[in-house]
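Complex 328.
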Amino acid sequence: MAKHERFYINVFNGCNLNCRHCFNNEGATKGPLLTTPEILRLSDEAMDCLGITEMQLTGGEPLQRPDIFPLISALQEKGLKVILQTNGFFDRDTVRKIQDLSRNNLSLIISMDGFETNDYFRGRGVTARTVANIEMLSESVDIRINTLLSSRIEWEEVENLAKLAERHSIQLAFNPICPSGRADSTLLLPAQKYFQWMYRLEELSAMGISIRKCFNVVEGHLVENEDCPVRKGATVHIAADGAVYPCGFLVNKQACFLGSVRESSILDLMKRIPDDCRSLHPDCQKCEYHIRRECKGGCPARILNLKGRFGEKDIYCMAEHLPNLWNR
Ligand SMILES: C[S@@+](CC[C@H](N)C(=O)[O-])C[C@H]1O[C@@H](n2cnc3c(N)ncnc32)[C@H](O)[C@@H]1O
Ligand code: SF4
Ligand code: SF4
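Predicted structure with iron/sulfur cluster bound:
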């Protein structure tokens, strides 16, 4: 089994926002919300059998869970680093509580999908409050901003995010939107633009801004940063009612339902990840980018959501788009 350092769990499916692009279309959870004792038992199991050191709490909006702060404290007491993934749309009281807990290994991942674009997706006024909260927290809390690359976002917004990150010494992470849940294929950043932006993000990195992106530029070549955890068999997504899927973007795909943590061990559930998820299109098997490990065959969730089955070619195919990247 691949090394599994982080563990993702949806601790609350409800949300204070209703973003136009949210993949988390789990709707009303099918079963009752995992209780705090259940999550603590799961964390013990994941520490024992997978050796995790970090636990990522997501949602829905995890800060809407009524007992979120006692839950975070209890996980910290076990020695886990807690990473809280939030939309950043919270009040002053929450800012103070986060500051208190951050003394003991708490990091925030705050979503900001641009500025105007963030308001378009998340609701008017969300960006202003999110930026204000980042400004209040950045001195005392480890923060990363997660930004989705979509057909809506302008490059100028990316540059303004870089300025915000530089001002507050925080990291930026960029990922393409996945056409899943409420997001459809019209929201995908076109492939040519996507690869060109990877080079431009590299230029921003070279200026000293801390940026995590899908590709690094190595001697002029784009090289995919990480193997997809689903392809490596090194991740599972635990939904708010304990249902398990290979990845958050595959939630609600009935064929990808692995079982429930209420009935089976995490290790048993991970063994049920279908081989199909990792299948490659025949072109990928003999592709020079794949042989050089520059492309790993794309995102299985994006492929399934767009093409209706695994083993197809990703829209972000380097072989198709890199040769004439700057010609259009
Ligand atoms: C579902 S949200 C839950 C946490 C929190 N409510 C938030 O918005 O950050 C987790 C992450 O998924 C991202 N996300 C939402 N919809 C997405 C989509 N269609 N494709 C890719 N990422 C998406 C969000 O931007 C966020 O960074
Ligand atoms: S992306 Fe986050 S904030 Fe927006 S609706 Fe989904 S869970 Fe809520
Ligand atoms: S997606 Fe394209 S670039 Fe990547 S391995 Fe397959 S054929 Fe090659």
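The longest strand covers residues 142-149.
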